[in-house]
Amino acid sequence: MNIIKTLMVGAFSMTALTMAAAEVQQNGNKVMVKPDGGQAKVICLEVMNDNIIRVRATSESALPVKKPSLMIVPQIAPAKKTYTISEDEQSVIVKAKNVTAVVNKATGAIVFFDATGKQLLKEAKDGKKFQNFTVPEREYGVRNIGGVTEEMKHGLTWQMLFDSPSDEAFYGLGQHQSEEFNMKGKNEDLFQYNTKVSIPFVLSNKNYGILWDSYSYCRFGNPNDYLQLNRAFKLYDRRGKEGHLTGTYVDKNGKKLVRDEDSIYYEYACPPTSEIANKTDNGGLKNLPKGFNLQGATVTYEGFIEPECCGRCAKAGKNEKQLYQFILYYAGYIKVYIDGKEVVPERWRTAWNPNSYKFSTELTKGKKAQLRIEWQPDGGDSYCGLRVSQPRNKTEREQLSIWSEMARDMDYYFIAGQNFDDVISGYRTLTGKASLYPKWVLGFWQSRERYQSSQDIEDNLAEFRRRHIPIDNIVQDWNYWNLPDWGAHDFEASRYPNPQAMLDSVHAMHGRFMISVWPKFYDTTEHYKELDEKGWMYRQAVKDDIHDWLGFRGSMYDAYDEGARKLFWKQMDDHLYSKFNKNGVPGIDAWWMDASEPNVRDCTPMWYRKALCGPTALGTSTEYFNAYSTVNADAIYNGQRSVWKGKANEPRVFLLTRSGFAGEQRYSTATWSGDIGTRWEDMRAQMTAGLNYSMSGVPFWGMDQGGFCVENRYVAAQKLFNETGEENEDLKEWRELQARWNQFGAFIPLFRSHGQWPTREIWNIAPDNHPAYKSFVYYDQLRYRMMPYMYSMAAWAHFKDYTLMRALVMDFNGDKEVENIGNQWMFGPALMACPVGYYKARNRSVYFPKQCGWYDFYTGEHYDGGQHLVVDAPYEKIPVFVREGAIIPFGPAMEWCDEKPAELINLYVYEGQDGSFQLYEDEGTNYNYEKGKYATIEIAYNDADKTVSFGKRNGAFKGMLKNRRFNVVLVKKDQPRDLNLDNPEGKMVQYSGKAVSVKL
Questions:
Q1: How far apart, in whole angstroms, are the C-alpha atoms of residue 331 and residue 427?
Q2: What pLDDT sits at residue 146?
Q3: pLDDT, tens only, 13-36
Q4: Cα three-residue angle 961-963-964, rounded to 5 degrees
Q5: Secondary-structure breakdown of the chain: helix, strand, coil percentages, each rounded to the nearest 5
Q6: Which residues on neighbouring strands pair with residue 305, listed in sequence order?
Q7: 60 is an active site residue
Q8: Is the pLDDT of residue 312 over 60?
């Protein structure tokens, strides 16, 4: 870079740099560029710190003055002389310690470099695109007071586009359900929905990330809408006649209906009582055959598709192959075949919560390919759709493309780092530190849909204690209230006659109590009326007379309004939190914030979803579509903390939410993956979903272990067993599915069982002599043994911006083999978990990253790195491996997280590389850690001389063990030894807080 002139950072007055026709002005750590060409008329670069540069751009004549960000926390301006802003004839150069951005004066294109001058990212030609955007009137929604101002109606649609080398890989973007891991060359629509969580943050294996400050519907990859089949292909029916496909509908009585289909787009339904929907939307289920009952029916869509694209194809010659990227939407059972090949094996999802699945196939231009879709709908109202992404060539597909439907301007943060952890740390610097979650959160949670009485809660927790199965948290799902009083936050007296006694009983059994609270209110409740009176309820659903599945009418509150958030919390506090605070001990330990997308009604089109949850206090829901869960979490976190006002022993806030967005970690919030299906493919999808969610910067994630929505065959199998004791084939599969899912769940941040009937307590899944039962108990007990290991990681997430569930690419970047492995991961620095995702599988392929050797967790057998091996995976165990140099502290056997102090820690150390571990401890439940009341011990292993060193203990807290023992167990390559957590042979170290070493 030829830097002609350097501007010192102290120049706070506007200083014009006039070496070229482009206008350049600096103000402190910001520089404004008005380039000679390109759609962006104004570009502003701002140095945030040594690793982060913010970029704003607009096609308007000036950047807008915006409301405070919902995702970015207040930042401290960088110190003087820590960056430079300079220019030469062609460029403006913004240089921080570890990242540089160079802006081309002629075009406004930006190139980013690391500290060594290596190019990280280069804007493509015409890499900033803008269109003026006006919110369609039908998306406004209805509220009692206020509405959509003229300013709220208008904004910009933008796309940013960067070139990407062939060896680049992309991750993050939240949690999605298509079993996709490396997102290079793939498409992802970013919106919130049950099972889908969208976070506008993407990471590259080139060690950078981009966080864009937009709350609207966004797209990664192709910026265009998916096409209906007739817009991408010539269609032919099953007999070869051009113009359409053939749809064959056969009802449960054998009655057949055959008709032409010009598209397969039965993906939604609008309520028949909605005036605006009836006026503006004629699609969805209303286009299925009139009067045909889908309940028990089979449907086949078949014919031929020919890639001609009506002129919209990528430019491909005759007989040239082109990759087509499809999206399938389904409820019920479905299969898809193209040219005789099964491109989508059987999948299933319940009708009230359909799923999307993406797949790709190559097709030849000008050549017909047979298409066949076999669909068994789930119930009388069910959903099916198949669309295709507008074709693009390989170069276009592999570019980094981000599109936002509506924003005030283009606004993103480029975050550079030495590794993934650095980049995620930059994300949390911008969006807020992760809270230190209560220790009990790492224990086992038992939930179901749902416990129906206080007796139910107490009896099931007592059964865990009777069986000596470890558990910390029992969860009360929805409908603990009187049926017509959703949103009243009151226990129904007939089923919960004495809530305080129930809560006292839970706590007396050393349990924790989490309760479900939705942002939903029936319009007959006093709470609804109180919120609505101030204009804080979304009223489209009430106007349209929408009744939920229980037959009542209601809607969601506007969490974007600060006053609404405070009132929402006050209602919860008055009826739940402070109401059941006995002698300074709250009865409610945690909050389950369900449906926080917000999901006012399932299975509606996108435009109507926007109408149902708007307008917000800040603007239209078109503009503020994705951030609801963050502002809702704000209401609970700051609400609960306001009750205590810094009093002693303030309990830590903890929320579980079904949605998520950038910054949610600062509100002590974890996300679970929603109401997923009970299928093997659903379990596999949670692996990639959880890994990408974790790489999106939010460290605590979980799922409904075992799946939520249950296939009828499993229900029937359980009923048969309850009546006859017979374990049929479906029940065998059900039990194995539960076993494998629980094994998977033991190695993620949240270990939580939940779902619909059959009930999920382990003794209800299988008898105690069954391998499914024994496997669960083994991993549950192991989880509690790992408490010192896991709680230290939870502390690192707060203090060091650590990520607990780690894709292999995070720790072994540079090994090309790991870039596409989304079904094995590191749980912390030591353990590589390799779950089993297929029925009756008794082995699986495992890749051992090349940077180190590996040990079998159970047997101590050593494996060289850099190889793929098929390893044993018996019913009761999944493969788990430990990297060389690992240090794992195992604590005592416990039935709840703080039953016993870890006076004796069996410290397993694995030969082959140097290693380190920071052991963290505090009181586990309160905020004294914010006052510095915690302790750490640095532990190091030197492989050359086989020495383990314990550093001086740093810090102290109430109840801290002043003296303890470490039993150091060295696992060697040539001396395998079984994992023994009761009495392993090792070297005992007496530790009193002073530095000490032991030679092994």
A1: 36
A2: 86
A3: 333 444 448 999 999 999 999 999
A4: 90
A5: 20, 35, 45
A6: 235, 369
A7: no
A8: no
Lookup: tokens for 807: 């894709």
| Residue 692 near residue 685 (C-beta atoms within 8 A) | no
Tokens (6 digits) for 635: 């209401």
As given in the structure block, the two tokens for residue 440 are 């009990």
For 886-901, what is the mean pLDDT? Answer: 98
Alpha carbons within 13 angstroms on the beta-carbon side of residue 433 total 11
| Cα-Cα end-to-end distance for the chain | 53
**What is the DSSP annotation of 436-499?**
---GGGGSEEE--TT--SHHHHHHHHHHHHHHT----EEEE-S--S-TT-TTS----TTT-S-H
> What pLDDT does residue 318 have?
65
> Has residue 309 got a pLDDT over 80?
no
Place of tokens 């909050």: 591
Distance CA 144, CA 532 (A): 7
Token pair 């993050």 in the structure block, residue: 172
Amino acid at 372: R
Report the distance separating Cα 456 and Cα 434, nearest Å: 34
Catalytic residue among 179, 597, 736, 856: 597
437-485 pLDDT, tens digit per residue, is 999 999 999 999 999 999 999 999 999 999 999 999 999 999 999 999 9
Beta bridge partners of 362: 323
What letter does residue 138 receive in the DSSP assignment?
G
Cα(819)–Cα(989) distance, rounded to whole angstroms? 41
Tell me the average pLDDT across 304-319. Answer: 67
Q: What is the distance between the alpha carbons of residues 178 and 684, in angstroms, rounded to a whole number?
A: 9
Per-residue pLDDT reduced to its tens digit, 745-804:
999 999 999 999 999 999 999 999 999 999 999 999 999 999 999 999 999 999 999 999
Question: Three-state SS for 166?
Answer: coil
CA–CA dist 918, 829 (Å, integer)? 11
Distance CA 115, CA 418 (A): 10
Across 307-437, where does the E strand assignment appear?
Answer: 321-330, 332-338, 341-349, 355-364, 369-376, 384-388, 400-407, 410-416
> What pLDDT does residue 775 have?
98
Which run of H or of E encompasses 642? helix 628-644
Q: Which region holds residue 180: left if phi is over 0, alpha if psi is between -120 and 50, else beta?
A: beta
Catalytic residue among 449, 458, 589, 675: 675
CB of 127 within 8 A of CB of 161? Answer: yes
The tens digit of pLDDT for each residue in 728-740 reads 999 999 999 999 9
Please pick, among 213, 532, 594, 923, the residue that the annotation labels catalytic. Answer: 594
512-516/473-476 β-pairing: parallel
CA distances for 170 relative to 214, 399, 474, 810, angstroms: 19, 10, 37, 12
> Residues 657-666: what's their mean pLDDT?
98
Please say if 594 is a catalytic residue. yes
Structure tokens at 349: 């999802």
Q: What is the pLDDT of residue 2?
A: 33
Residue 463 three-state SS: helix
Nearest to 32 by CA among 6, 55, 8: 55
How does DSSP classify residue 575? I
Query: Is cis: bond before 289, omega within 30 of 0?
Result: no
The answer to whether residue 319 scores a pLDDT higher than 90 is no
Q: What is the pLDDT of residues 31-70, one digit of tens each?
A: 999 999 999 999 999 999 999 999 999 999 999 999 999 9
Backbone angles phi, psi at 153, to 5 degrees: -75, -20
Whole-angstrom distance, CA of residue 972 vs CA of residue 858: 14
Q: How far is CA 222 from CA 270, 368, 583, 836, in A?
A: 27, 25, 57, 33
The closest of 1, 9, 4, 40 to 20, measured between CA atoms, is 4
DSSP letter at 576 equals: I
Active site residue 532: no
> Which pLDDT does position 646 carry in this prediction?
83
Other C-beta atoms within 10 Å of 521: how many?
A: 26
Give me the chain's average pLDDT, please. 96
